[in-house]
């Protein structure tokens, strides 16, 4: 194919424009987080403050409850991601490989759970968790997040399993493996991209979830960081500098996590995409 | 090694029946080829022997032991898949040794088994590679290697050469035959390619629509096809057929075609005068003879290099002739042919062979 310089340039410019638009809020987050309080309202709109400072960061880490929020969020998001991925792998494999009665209805029911706006479910969920003593607890959050993420993750995993030829596990079974050993030793390693994609998807979803965390958690001890960010809003003012610093810190685990799995993710997302 | 005994095997998927009662006894060390068109049930039968499909009814015995309810891993058989089904995340050596590892075979034993199989198949330099770094033929070899390291009771092949190009297929076909000569392993080989069936088999099982049509040596099927299906399926180019009415007059018999032409046919006891019948003759058995009894209009000439396939028509009934005579590259508008009586096959109303 002959290259057309104009189209190439236009293409790159379009991508650049998209990246600028997408990343600008992040940049603003960073900018505000390093702006000293006295300059925040006095310098007008500037791309970078005349004097940068890390005082918000030191305050957030040393003097606020943020480390607790951060730890809680890590526990909740990490546990949810692992629990969902295990459940979704097993369920997705069953949907992909086994023929069983009522499969159609199970799939339909799982889809139905995805149809309701979460806001509608807050009250009943609170009502259910309250007598079990699971409100204001990380376990309660993990259970709720897991329940809400499993259906979609199951469909995601199913599409990855569908992409792996059945011949492979049949060969393994003839080689002397049980179906479970074939699943563990042959199919799972080949589904790593799918597992990484599911882990990443669920981790970020749980990491940034606000609604349920806000409704089910009261008090700082069990608060996750999205809830914790609200503590920077006081009756008469919002401490933007500290809030933004906390926000930047909260981004770090998500970024690290994606850095870790991105090798699998690139294959994984495309594989999932092709299978639809 | 073992014999395999199949008794009245049936298979249905829901209301859809795929195998209608198959009986087959495979002797120890025998090379059996299941051949037939797509959807005839040959792969299903193989997968039932492997334990990958449930048996709807009937019995499968391996070495005298009923295996209907045994998991594939407990049947001690090896299978080569059309897709090769190599484990993509394992090296060639790991692929080949996987079954032995699952059986907790000692390391030294595994090494010698893999080494032996690799040497036999010329895989030595490839042992550390991953399957994706191999060519189609090499992958095929690894799949075979994976089967032979185990020394199983039987080898099952599910169209193993279908994904290879023609040249490689020919080469691998010969290798499989040679390997069977070395190992004398009971083998069941599924293919839709009648050349593979003819060249490899000790006995061919020709299947159609879930029913075994004929079991016999390759030459049995070629020389004495049991019915129209086998006659048409075995041989290339395919057998010529003429449909008509079998009429006896005095001590000789004729086949009267729909357009009124009569062809002399041998008298056969198995068919009554007046019955509809089909006459068959292989293209390579039609004799070109300047004094032949029939005139054939030449429609098309297909040189194959080795010989020539002539498409002709006898009174508007199409027929093929295979000849080695290069003069036939330019035969003129018509040729004269004979249909030698001893080469004719006669099939009755139901398509069955008539003797």
TrEMBL record, chain A:
CDD domains: TM_PBP2
Homology family: Belongs to the binding-protein-dependent transport system permease family.
Keywords: Cell membrane, Membrane, Transmembrane, Transmembrane helix, Transport
One Pfam family from the record: BPD_transp_1
Cross-referenced Gene3D superfamilies: MetI-like (1.10.3720.10)
Entry keyword annotation includes Metal-binding: no
Bilayer topology annotation: Multi-pass membrane protein
Biological processes annotated in GO: transmembrane transport
Locations listed in the record: Cell membrane
InterPro entries in alphabetical order: BP-dep_ABC_trans_perm, MetI-like, MetI-like_sf
Organism from which the protein derives: Shinella granuli
Record GO cellular component, one term: plasma membrane
Annotated ranges, domain ABC transmembrane type-1: 70-261
Domain of life: Bacteria
Name of this protein: Carbohydrate ABC transporter membrane protein 2 (CUT1 family)
Residues annotated as transmembrane: 12-30, 74-95, 104-126, 182-204, 210-233, 245-266
Automatic annotation (TrEMBL), chain B:
Mode of membrane association: Peripheral membrane protein
Superkingdom: Bacteria
Alphabetic keyword roster: ATP-binding, Nucleotide-binding, Transport
Residues covered by the ABC transporter domain: 4-234
An MF annotation (GO) of this entry: ABC-type transporter activity
Residue intervals passing through the bilayer: none
SUPFAM superfamilies: MOP-like, P-loop containing nucleoside triphosphate hydrolases
GO cellular component: ATP-binding cassette (ABC) transporter complex, substrate-binding subunit-containing
Pfam families cross-referenced by the UniProt entry: ABC_tran, OB_MalK
Subcellular location: Cell inner membrane
Keyword Nucleotide-binding assigned: yes
Keyword match Transport: yes
Family annotation (Gene3D superfamilies): 2.40.50.100, Nucleic acid-binding proteins, P-loop containing nucleotide triphosphate hydrolases
BP term (GO), one: carbohydrate transport
Family: Belongs to the ABC transporter superfamily.
Protein name (Swiss-Prot/TrEMBL): Carbohydrate ABC transporter ATP-binding protein (CUT1 family)
Naturally occurring in which organism (per UniProt): Shinella granuli
């Amino acid at each position: 194919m002959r290259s057309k310089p104009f189209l190439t340039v236009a293409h790159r410019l379009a991508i650049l424009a998209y990246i600028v638009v997408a990343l600008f809020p992040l940049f603003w987050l960073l900018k505000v987080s390093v702006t000293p309080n006295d300059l925040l309202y006095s310098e007008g709109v500037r791309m970078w403050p005349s004097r940068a400072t890390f005082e918000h960061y030191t305050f957030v880490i040393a003097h606020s409850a943020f480390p607790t929020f951060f730890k809680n969020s890590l526990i909740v998001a990490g546990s949810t991601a692992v629990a969902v991925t295990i459940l979704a792998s097993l369920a997705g494999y069953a949907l992909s490989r086994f023929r069983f009665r009522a499969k159609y209805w199970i799939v339909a029911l799982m889809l139905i759970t995805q149809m309701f706006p979460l806001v509608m479910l807050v009250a009943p969920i609170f009502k259910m968790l309250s007598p079990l003593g699971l409100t204001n607890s990380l376990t309660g959050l993990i259970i709720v997040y897991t329940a809400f993420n499993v259906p979609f993750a199951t469909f995601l995993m199913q599409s990855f399993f569908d992409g792996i030829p059945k011949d492979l596990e049949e060969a393994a079974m003839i080689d002397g493996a049980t179906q479970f050993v074939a699943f563990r030793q042959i199919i799972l390693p080949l589904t790593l991209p799918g597992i990484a994609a599911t882990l990443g998807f669920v981790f970020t979803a749980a990491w940034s979830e606000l609604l349920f965390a806000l409704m089910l958690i009261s008090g700082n001890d069990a608060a996750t960081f999205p809830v914790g960010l609200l503590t920077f809003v006081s009756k008469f003012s919002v401490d933007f500098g500290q809030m933004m610093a906390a926000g930047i810190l909260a981004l770090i685990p998500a970024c690290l996590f994606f850095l870790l799995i991105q090798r699998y993710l690139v294959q994984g997302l495309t594989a999932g995409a092709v299978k639809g | 090694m073992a014999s395999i005994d199949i008794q009245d095997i049936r298979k249905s998927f829901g209301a859809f029946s795929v195998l209608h009662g198959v009986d087959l006894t495979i002797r120890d060390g025998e090379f059996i080829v299941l051949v037939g068109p797509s959807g005839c049930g040959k792969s299903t039968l193989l997968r039932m022997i492997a334990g990958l499909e449930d048996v709807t009814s009937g019995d499968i015995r391996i070495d005298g032991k009923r295996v209907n309810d045994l998991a594939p891993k407990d049947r001690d058989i090896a299978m080569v898949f059309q897709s090769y089904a190599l484990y993509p995340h394992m090296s060639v050596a790991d692929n080949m040794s996987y079954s032995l590892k699952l059986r907790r075979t000692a390391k030294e034993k595994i090494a010698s088994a893999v080494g032996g199989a690799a040497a036999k198949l010329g895989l030595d330099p490839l042992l550390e590679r991953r399957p994706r770094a191999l060519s189609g033929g090499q992958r095929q070899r690894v799949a075979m290697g994976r089967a032979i390291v185990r020394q199983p009771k039987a080898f099952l092949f599910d169209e193993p050469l279908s994904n290879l190009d023609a040249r490689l297929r020919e080469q691998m076909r010969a290798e499989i035959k040679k390997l069977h000569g070395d190992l004398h392993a009971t083998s069941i080989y599924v293919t839709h390619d009648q050349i593979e069936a003819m060249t490899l088999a000790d006995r061919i099982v020709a299947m159609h629509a879930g029913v075994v049509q004929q079991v016999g040596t390759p030459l049995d099927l070629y020389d004495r096809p049991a019915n129209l299906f086998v006659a048409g399926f075995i041989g290339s180019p395919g057998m010529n057929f003429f449909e008509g009415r079998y009429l006896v007059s005095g001590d000789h018999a004729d086949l009267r075609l729909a357009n009124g032409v009569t062809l002399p046919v041998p008298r056969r006891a198995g068919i009554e005068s007046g019955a509809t019948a089909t006459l068959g003759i292989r293209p390579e058995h039609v004799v070109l003879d300047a004094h032949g009894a029939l005139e054939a209009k030449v429609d098309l000439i297909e040189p194959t290099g080795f010989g020539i396939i002539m498409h002709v028509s006898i009174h508007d009934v199409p027929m093929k002739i295979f000849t080695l005579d290069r003069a036939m590259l330019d035969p003129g508008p018509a040729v004269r042919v004979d249909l030698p009586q001893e080469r004719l096959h006669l099939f009755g109303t139901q398509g069955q062979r008539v003797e």
